[in-house]
TrEMBL record:
This is Nucleotidyltransferase family protein. InterPro entries: GlmU-like, MurU, NTP_transferase_dom, Nucleotide-diphossugar_trans. It comes from Neisseria montereyensis. It holds the Pfam family NTP_transferase. PANTHER family: N-ACETYLMURAMATE ALPHA-1-PHOSPHATE URIDYLYLTRANSFERASE, NUCLEOTIDYL TRANSFERASE.
């Protein structure tokens, strides 16, 4: 199975730190944020990884190289300085990701989502002819209204009238067919594609109640650093 780490964001709210360093390379516990993903993917047995990049993307390639230091194999999908939004970035990287379902993770979060379960969900998507499986998390203070509804049947809906919305973690397993009509090398958002698939009953999901931190501010970067420092102290 392959995974894609989204690393093309500009990180406006993290300026001035991101004026000279791409957000996924900001450090928590002495390790780049994206490095924690690489370690967890390797531990889960997912070793073929695609990373997209835009702003200061050459720094990402220079820092991570082939991925050998993490025991993985990295292929890069450069997008130019402005980036292509999430769906545009994934559609552009499809030739690198192949024809089977793949895992996608936001590069600027710190989480303990079990990536090994993504292998199971990838197989389930192919067998059940669904297009996506998403991890949702309890709503953080910066997103109090949530994004999507996790229904009792395990499917996800976008209609808030259906229940209490949870926040999309930015982690999901996707079938390539979700992006079939999304042209490569053009900016496109992911949410409209997901909502359309939800209306057709083609998106499943689950709630993750463990660690999930969107490192979108300097304050949350300090929080991530404390968490990662504790990880380093564990035997």
């Amino acid at each position: 199975m392959k995974a894609m780490i989204l690393a093309a964001g500009r990180g406006e709210r993290m300026r001035p730190l991101t004026d000279t360093c791409p957000k996924p390379l900001l450090k928590a516990g002495g390790e780049p944020l994206i490095g924690w993903h690489l370690r967890r993917l390797k531990a889960a047995g997912i070793e073929d990884i695609v990373i997209n990049h835009a702003w200061l993307g050459s720094q990402i390639e220079d820092t991570l190289g082939t991925g050998a230091a993490y025991g993985v194999r990295i292929t890069y999908s450069p997008e130019g300085e402005k980036g292509l939004e999430t769906a545009g970035g994934i559609a552009t990287a499809l030739p690198l990701l192949g024809s089977e379902p793949f895992l996608v993770v936001n590069g600027d979060v710190l989480t303990d989502i079990d990536f090994q379960t993504a292998i199971h969900y990838a197989q389930a998507l192919a067998q059940q002819q669904k297009l996506a499986h998403l991890w949702l998390v309890p709503n953080p203070a910066h997103n109090p209204n949530g994004d999507f509804i996790l229904q009792q049947n395990g499917l996800i809906a976008s209609d808030n009238a259906a229940g209490s919305a949870l926040t999309f973690s930015g982690t999901g397993v996707y079938h390539p067919d979700l992006f079939r009509d999304t042209p490569p090398h053009q900016a496109a958002k992911l949410a409209p594609l997901l909502r359309q698939a939800m209306q057709q009953g083609l998106v499943s999901g689950e709630q993750h109640n463990g660690l999930w931190l969107d490192v979108g501010t300097v304050e949350r970067l300090a929080e991530a650093d404390k968490i990662a420092q504790n990880w380093l102290k564990q035997p």
